[in-house]
Sequence to fold (340 residues):
Amino acid sequence: MSVSDLVRVQYFFVSFMQKTMTNPFLQIEDLHKTFSVKAGPARTVAARAVDGVSLTVAPGEVVGLVGESGCGKSTLGRLVLGLLPPTSGRVIVEGRDIASLNKSALRALRRKMQVIFQDPFASLNPRMRVRDIITEPLVIHDLAKRSDLDARAVELLGKVGLPADAAMRYPHEFSGGQRQRIGIARALACRPSFIVADEPVSALDVSVQAQIINLLEEIQKEMELSFLFIAHDLNLVRYFSDRVAVMYLGKIVEIAPAEEIYRSPSHPYTEALLADIPVLDPTIKKKRILLKGDIPSPTSIPPGCRFHTRCLYRFEPCDKIVPRTTDLGNGHFVDCHLRG
Ligand code: SF4
Fold:
């Protein structure tokens, strides 16, 4: 299949999703991001971090984005937020291409799109009081009078389950979970419509992870927020997401409603990620699928199916022909010759 055929398939995928969702909040069209990487004293090579991603997120929808470290998930999150310019492709928010927006329109849009970072230790300024951290976005966007900031800080702290007296303390006085709550309060300050949560619990103890996920779920329902929830652990996104997209080496290789992808994973990579989730019940025997080797470098993406170097099921066409996107029905799409 030629490159133009593949692009057409991607666009078919986007238009299908558009038909099934009324006015998506976010629409990503054939997005690419390539970085130049030094490969010697006088040589650079291209690293294709995001390599032709198309995706939509409806108002109030949670899309989980999973894959191993280095597959391009965080780069995609930064492209969506306009923190990085794409090499090609489009990011459309509420019907407007963000590349076409002037400074003030982009600023207004940024109010609606917030981020929760992975590391609650690094993402909070240690010299600022919590009150100033969480109300800073209100000051930047001129959304509140100075005299109202104390009350807004207390309101935001209450929303994330922290006491009012936390406002006058500094980040180092809090545990990891509490710091992540502060990060969430900051993200909510401007009453956004959409949040990119970039591995928001992976730096936390397992016991605290569930509390933060529950908090995000409550807030999502209450404020009807859209989320792009980035994680490397499929189990984490399972209960929080409406749909799950699985990303491998810069590309989405499978996307489906959350329950469907857990019930019947169709891409061998998704199957391997699911097989890696520990089962607490010792009576349940689970087939373990070990992925061979590490994820290849984005500077040398394998030909054909990019997963073929690690796939247990690879066969004749896999190392030569790029698999097309197959529609399995019910919003379930997969890139694999086994299903094509
Ligand atoms: Fe495996 Fe081939 Fe499917 Fe790729 S196309 S995931 S190599 S079976």
Summary: Residues 120-191 form one domain.
